[in-house]
Amino acid sequence: MTAVESAPVPKRDHLLRRTLRDPLAAACLAVLVLVVVASLAAPLFTGHAPDRSVMADTLAPASGAHPLGADGVGRDVLSRLLYGGRTSLLGGGLAVLVAFAVGGPLGVISGFFRGWFDAVAGWIVNVIMAVPAIIVMLVVMAAVSQDLNVAMVVLGVIMAPMVFRLIRASVVAVREELYVDAARVSGLGDGRVMRRHVLPVVVAPSVIQATQVFAVAIGIQAGLAFLGLGKASQASWGAMLGDAFTNVYDAPVLLVWPGAAMGLTILASSLLGNAVRDALGTTERRSPAKKRHKRVVRGGAPAADVPADRLLTVEGLRVGYPRPGGDRTVVDGVSLTVSRGEVLGLVGESGSGKSQTAFAVLGLLPDDAEVVAGRLAFDGQDLLGMDTAALNRLRGHGIGYVPQEPMSNLDPCFRIGFQLVEPMRTHLGLSRAEARTRALGLLERVGIPDPERVFRAYPHQVSGGMAQRVLIAGAVSCDPRLLIADEPTTALDVTVQAEVLDLMRSLQQEHAMGMVLVTHDFGVVADICDRVAVMRGGRIVETAPMRQIFAAPGHPYTRTLLASTLDGGPVRGEPSGPPCADQPLKGVTS
Ligand SMILES: Nc1ncnc2c1ncn2[C@@H]1O[C@H](COP(=O)(O)OP(=O)(O)OP(=O)(O)O)[C@@H](O)[C@H]1O
Predict the structure, then answer these.
(1) How does pLDDT run across 530-589, given as a tens digit for each residue?
(2) What is residue 259's predicted lDDT score, i.e. its pLDDT?
(3) What is the pLDDT of residue 229?
(4) Number of helices and strands (H, E) in the chain?
(5) In what helix (H) or strand (E) does residue 378 lie, and over which residues does it extend?
(6) Does the pLDDT at position 158 exceed 70?
(7) 526 by DSSP, 3-state: which?
(8) Which of 291, 354, 484, 487 to mutate to test the pocket of ligand 1 (most atoms within 8 A of CB)?
(9) Which residue, 153, 58, 113, is CA-closest to 367?
(10) Where is this region: Disordered (predicted)?
């Protein structure tokens, strides 16, 4: 029996509150607030102008008039420290802003859409990275402007490639996740998928990167000022270090103030960045599941002369992957049909091409797949000719999908309720409240005992069986006419398998949905299917009504598969028993 684990659902906790639970983070934030407030409110703390020089006060020690003393040309050290903080903070902030404004969007677009944009952006980034940063800034300061802030803007552009690479890598990793596929299957457009599932993952590494850019910018700015660059009127910690260095033997204490201010600011911002990253709870980078390239779709003719109750028509479907040694064909000439209210079982050993066939219908094959079909039509619409936006509208609404791995198809960052509500709002145009009510009803319908609780839970707080029920609820939430279920019970234990199958059968009958049930299990076939198509080596070797398949299997391979199931032997992998007439296709892994 499936059950929600007893851990209570945590309340949404504000990021700042979570961060400040770490005492070190709280101390770092306090230091940064102090530095910012002191710099901005400098006139409140000192009456001296930072560039006002009084020769009589040269290297004056700390006193009431000069709490931190005076520098080599008689300027008040406290005043220069406070006003210098403005220059450093503004410079660091400018560099971060420019680096993220340039590198951030480019990284997201490149990682998400790849293709020519990615290639061009990658090339530009490589060129920028080959340019020596310090030389460029020296040239800019010498030839364009003596303003340190201008140099920091240039530094931001030079550092944008680092941001670009980091964000691109994060986006590439997350877009390969199954739950991103699942979101696309449920019909969410690229914008929503990016906003809801991709961008949240980018936030944590970006925070760390921002603190690094900030620290580097403050350091480089100080270096430039130390070399004497920058306007003489512009107080900065670097200029203070330069001045202190010339008087290092007479007043070594002058090195302490700007050094301590810089060190503390950089340290506090780095440690705070780490704490924020930890509080975001996404420290691990998600590993890419598979590599994708551009999808090529060729061929396809509009559907015509099909019976009125026909829902899905697949004719002569071929799926191949270009490989250096020759194309790898994984589905070869598959033809099948599904009528309204009919359940078609797609059966075969592992690697026979069942999922590839299902994904071709869903338009979810990897981008390097070549798909050719005489006809690939859903309810009178040509699927091959459809653009992504039309496919997005169709998926979820017209065609629902129940995946094999329930857990990997739910985004761990979002509550289950949110993930159910979103597609309904998109496809059915429901308000948030209406979608919530409908989602709760669906959760109850799929046999979840405490819908409210599961609605508020995160995926890790429910069991695998419960997650699969949630996905089934999601798949039928927008009243699809066809449901594609890819081994929906494989990841579940035996009792739960039976319950989930019962549920799918009754939902299918209630909604009069057509269904393609991908499975390797003849038990499942007997339970739920009206007709069966048996696949081997990328081809359909036999299609027949369910009872006929069991009573009089026509193809030797069907007999072998049936025998291995009925014997209780392994169905997956190469079947035992007499060799079949059909051998696997060249290049197809069985
Ligand atoms: N991106 C890809 N590039 C090349 N070959 C692929 C790719 N994806 C799948 N294949 C191959 O396609 C063949 C069919 O895979 P498919 O996932 O459809 O099998 P299946 O019948 O669903 O098996 P299973 O029950 O194990 O999921 C396999 O040999 C697999 O290695």
Answers:
(1) 999 999 999 999 999 999 998 899 899 999 888 877 655 444 333 333 334 344 333 333
(2) 92
(3) 81
(4) 22, 12
(5) strand 375-378
(6) yes
(7) helix
(8) 354
(9) 113
(10) 566-590
* Architecture field, domain 296-398+481-564: 3-Layer(aba) Sandwich (3.40)
Q: Quick one: which of 214, 213, 255 has its CA closest to 238?
A: 255
**Is ipTM strictly over 0.90?**
yes
Listing DSSP states for 229-273 in one string gives: -S-TT---HHHHHHHHHHTTTT-THHHHHHHHHHHHHHHHHHHHH
| Residue closest by Cα to atom 1 of ligand 1 | 366
Of the candidates 544, 535, 546, 527, the one whose C-alpha atom is nearest the C-alpha of residue 580 is: 535
CB 403 within 8 A of CB 471: yes
- Is residue 328 in contact with ligand 1, taking CB distance under 6 Å? yes
> What CATH architecture applies to the domain 22-49+68-280?
Orthogonal Bundle (1.10)
Q: Is 335 in the pocket of ligand 1 (CB under 6 A)?
A: no
pTM of this structure = 0.58
Contact present, 541 and 335 (Cβ < 8 Å): no
Q: What is the pLDDT of residues 423-465, one digit of tens each?
A: 898 888 889 999 999 999 989 888 888 999 999 999 988 988 8
> Is the Cβ–Cβ distance between 371 and 294 less than 8 Å?
no
Q: Which residues are bridge partners to 378 per DSSP? A: 312, 381
pLDDT reading at 108 higher than 70: yes
* 419: nearest Cα among 388, 442, 394: 442
Q: Is the pLDDT of residue 98 over 90?
A: yes
Ligand 1 pocket residue status of 270, Cβ below 6 Å: no
User: Does ligand 1 come within 6 angstroms of the Cβ of 58?
Assistant: no
In the chain, CATH 1.10.3720.10 covers 22-49+68-280
Nearest atom of ligand 1 to the alpha carbon of 589: 29
Interatomic CA distance for residues 379 and 490, integer angstroms? 29
State if residue 223 touches ligand 1 by the CB under 6 angstroms criterion. no
pLDDT of 209 strictly over 90? no
HEC letters along 317-353: EEEEECCCCCCEEEEEEEEEEEECCCEEEEEECCCCC
Q: How far is the CA of 350 from the centre of ligand 1 (A)?
A: 8
Q: Has residue 500 got a pLDDT over 60?
A: yes
The set of residues, in sequence order, having a beta carbon less than 8 Å from that of 550 and lying 6+ positions away, is: 522, 526, 562
The pLDDT tens digits for 21-66 are 888 889 999 999 999 999 999 888 888 888 888 888 888 888 888 8
Question: What is the spatial distance between Cα 347 and Cα 357, in angstroms, rounded to a whole number?
Answer: 11
What average pLDDT does the structure give for the chain?
A: 82
DSSP output for 500-538: HHHHHHHHHHHHT-EEEEEES-HHHHHHH-SEEEEEETT
Calculate how far, in angstroms, residue 466's C-alpha sits from the geometric centre of ligand 1.
Answer: 27
Please choose, from the candidates 131, 179, 139, the residue with its C-alpha nearest in 3D space to the C-alpha of residue 158: 131
Q: What six digits make up the tokens of 471?
A: 């996905």
